[in-house]
Amino acid sequence: MTDNAKNPVLKLELVGIVFIVLVGSALHFTFDLSGSNPLVGIFSAVNESVWEHLKLSFWPALLYAVIEYGYLNRKTGSFFPAKTIGIYLMPLIIVFSFYLYRAFIEENLVIDILIFILAVAIGQFASYRLMTWKATSRIYTPISIVALILLAILFIIFTFYPPQLPIFQDPISGGYGFK
User: Fold this and answer.
1) For the residues of the chain, what is the DSSP string, one character each?
2) Among residues of the chain, what percentage have pLDDT more than 90?
3) Rounded to the nearest 10 degrees, what angle do helices 3-33 and 109-133 cross at?
4) What is the pLDDT, as a whole number, of residue 23?
5) Can you tell me the distance from the alpha carbon of 7 to that of 72, in angstroms, rounded to the nearest whole number?
6) Mean pLDDT, rounded, of the chain
7) What phi and psi values does residue 163 have, to the nearest 5 degrees?
8) DSSP labels for 141-155?
9) What b-and-e string marks burial along 38-74, b requiring 16 or more CB atoms within 10 Å of the CB?
C-alpha cells in the first residue's frame, strides 16, 4: 500500500479512537437511562462487572468498522482481518491490564478509563498497521467475519446467561448479568 493510501486509513483509524471512546462511554449509562430495557442491555453495560464493560469497546468498534467498510474496503486487501484483530485486542488488553493493576493496587476509576482509552487506541493502531502492511489471503475475510459474529453472540448470550466466574460478577451487587 502506498503512502498516499495509508494516510486516509490512518485518519479514519484516529477518528475511530475518538468515536469508540465517546460512544463506549455513553453506553456505560444507556442501560440505566433506558429503564433497564433488555434490548439496550445487549449493547450496554448491565452491571459493573469486567465482562459488561468489555461491551463498551466491542459494540462501538464493530459499528465503526461497519461505517469504515464503505471507505476502506477497496483501499486495503485486509480490511476484515485487520479490524477483527483490532477489535479482539481491545477487550483482551482491558482484561489483562485491569487484573494486572488490581493485583497491586485498589480499583481506580481514572486508571480504568485510561486502560479503556489505551485499549481502544492499541486496537485501532493494530488495525491500521495490518491494513497498511500487506494484503492477506482472501480466506481470512470469512474467518474474520465469523470471529466477529461469534464474539457478538457471546456478548449477547453472556448478558442474559453469564457463567458464574469472577469476570462476570458485579462487584457492587454480587450478581451476574442482566438484573
Assistant:
1) --HHHHHHHHHHHHHHHHHHHHHHHHHHHHHHHTTS-HHHHHHS-SSSSHHHHHHHHHHHHHHHHHHHHHHHTTT-S-HHHHHHHHHHHHHHHHHHHHHHHHTTS---HHHHHHHHHHHHHHHHHHHHHHHHH----TTHHHHHHHHHHHHHHHHHHHHHS--SSGGGB-TTT--BS--
2) 80
3) 150
4) 98
5) 11
6) 92
7) -65, 155
8) HHHHHHHHHHHHHHH
9) eebbbbbbbbebbbbbbbbbbbbbbebbeebeeebee
Q: Name the grid cell of 119.
A: 485499549
Q: Nearest to residue 107, comparing CAs of 57, 45, 58, 171? A: 171
Q: Is 107 within 8 Å of 49 (Cβ atoms)?
A: no
Ramachandran angles phi, psi of 176, nearest 5°:
-130, 140
Q: Is the pTM of this model over 0.90?
A: yes
Residue ranges of domains in the chain: 3-168
C-alpha cell at 34: 433506558
The cell numbers describing 12, all together, are: 479514519
Read off the C-alpha cell for 139: 480466506
The dihedral formed by the CA atoms of 24, 53, 55 and 124, expressed in degrees to the nearest 10: 60
Q: pLDDT tens digits for 138-166?
A: 788 899 999 999 999 999 999 999 999 99
pLDDT in tens, 43-78: 999 999 999 999 999 999 999 999 999 888 777 878
